[in-house]
């Protein structure tokens, strides 16, 4: 009788799980446990008055009611949204413009690698250093005002005007992140099949029509990703306005963001209110992210459903 030879198969699946252990371990210790702790502390009254410690005392949803109905959270949410929009709109415009230029083979641009490096470099600079640089340049006795005075123009107090303070914060966020957004959008555009673009040019479509009718619809998932991540980053905006306005959100707290408001509670050792505010921001961020993603990708889902129905003959 011939013995059946059993082929020895080596399973590498276990190694994949082993390599994932460090990630899950770090995530559990530094993210999941703090998240659970924040949610737990949000139900307690726990703060310090001078040298006296109040609590922890279980108060249920009292911290949430205090923040939602008796605080200035809507004002700080409005400030955050305005500053984010002031930086995000030009960021998307210039990023799309640069990405389309760098990926257009007909232009034959030279030194594209150098320019990509230059526009990405501000993303590598620490936000604190960037903020101190802008604080020095746009101060009342800084180089910009000295230039204005030499031209016979009056001194403009950038950090004492609402438009000036918000504009500087938005400008810094734009400069720090438009390079990263450009690289991401370039990756999406470079993934488009060149035969589609060539066929459109043969049919007589110009560059603007190709960009509007072909490029934008195809890279919509990348744009949705960029929009959601930028929205999350905008809600978490802290370091730039904190340093530029010395933590006060001047003038008259018009540039104070929600994370700066959260930091006030943490600084005052009011852990219960800080925990409740963190949970509320987490819920707001999740709702806005899902809503934006659904809105941006709804046309793609509708087109996919129509193709499925057509294939089934419905």
From TrEMBL:
Name the keywords, alphabetized: Cell membrane, Membrane, Transmembrane, Transmembrane helix, Transport
Q: Which SUPFAM superfamilies match?
A: MetI-like
Q: Does the keyword Zinc apply?
A: no
Query: Looking at the Swiss-Prot or TrEMBL record, what is one Pfam family this protein matches?
Result: BPD_transp_1
Give compartment(s).
Cell membrane
Q: Per UniProt, what is the membrane topology?
A: Multi-pass membrane protein
Put simply, this protein is called Sugar ABC transporter permease
Species: Lachnospira intestinalis
């Amino acid at each position: 009788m011939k013995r059946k030879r059993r082929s020895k198969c080596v399973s590498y699946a276990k190694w994949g799980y082993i390599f994932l252990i460090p990630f899950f371990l770090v995530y559990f210790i530094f993210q999941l446990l703090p998240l659970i702790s924040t949610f737990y502390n949000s139900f307690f009254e726990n703060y310090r008055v001078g040298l006296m410690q109040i609590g922890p005392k279980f108060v249920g949803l009292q911290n949430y009611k205090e923040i939602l109905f008796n605080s200035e959270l809507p004002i700080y949410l409005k400030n955050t949204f305005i500053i984010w929009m002031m930086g995000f709109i030009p960021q998307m415009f210039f990023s799309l413009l640069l990405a389309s230029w760098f990926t257009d083979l007909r232009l034959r641009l030279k030194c594209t690698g150098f320019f990509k490096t230059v526009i990405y470099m501000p993303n590598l600079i620490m936000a604190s250093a960037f903020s101190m640089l802008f604080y020095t340049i746009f101060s009342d006795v800084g180089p910009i005002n000295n230039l204005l005075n030499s031209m016979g123009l009056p001194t403009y107090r950038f950090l004492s005007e609402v438009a000036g303070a918000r504009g500087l914060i938005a400008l810094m966020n734009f400069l720090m992140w438009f390079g990263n957004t450009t690289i991401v959008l370039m990756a999406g555009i470079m993934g488009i099949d060149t035969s589609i673009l060539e066929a459109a040019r043969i049919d007589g479509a110009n560059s603007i029509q190709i960009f509007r009718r072909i490029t934008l619809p195809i890279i919509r998932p990348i744009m949705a990703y960029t929009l959601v991540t930028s929205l999350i980053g905008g809600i978490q905006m802290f370091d730039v306005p904190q340093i530029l306005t010395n933590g006060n959100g001047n003038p008259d707290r018009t540039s104070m963001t929600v994370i700066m408001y959260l930091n006030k509670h943490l600084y005052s050792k009011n852990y219960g209110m800080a925990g409740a505010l963190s949970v509320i921001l987490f819920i707001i961020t999740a709702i806005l992210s899902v809503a934006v993603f659904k809105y941006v990708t709804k046309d793609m889902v509708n087109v996919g459903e129509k193709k499925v129905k057509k294939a089934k003959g419905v």
